[in-house]
Amino acid sequence: MIFIRYENWRSYIRYYPVTCLLLAANIIMFLVLTVNGGSLNTDTLLKYGAIANFGPFEHEWWRLFTAMFLHMGFGHLFSNGFAILVFAPPLERLLGHWRYALLYLGSGIVGNLLSFGMYQQSGELHLSVGASGAVYGVYGAFLYIALLQRHLMDESSRKTLYSLLIVGVIFSLVAPKINWMAHFGGLVGGFFIYGLIIRVLKRR
Length: 204
Fold this sequence. Notes:
The protein has 204 residues and is mostly helical. Helix content is 69%, strand content 2%.
């Protein structure tokens, strides 16, 4: 089962440095938000890089990146942080550090871009933050492995992944204030980015 963590903290940091940096960045930015108005404060979120489709903010494309490291409330941070901590490490070991970082960040940007485009077309005012698109990008990469590289994933891990995806899809569609397009965009982005990486950026 690749989704069970057996490492102690020292080994975890040595084996998964990019995962540790991503998790630390999310925690640090949450603390920054907390001491500068709160992670639920709209003005604070906009100041530090939330995605918005209104006012001057809609033309600031760097927000597609910065929003990945911001979260609304501790529960939001905890759910994404737990997924990064537990489910992402096997992908870092498989791809290598910089290719894994490329997939994570690329998936998050794809999810945010598709989400922004959808809300822009609808005309609905929208503000978005969170690492969910990138997390679903990791799931998308694992889905590629489960379907097309079955020798790299055991049966128990495949069942766990499918269960995660089923629950995630249902939750994304029924829970209020969930940016479901960022989730689906990240999932699709991760699936195709992974396929591109293993073909174009082959690991030695």
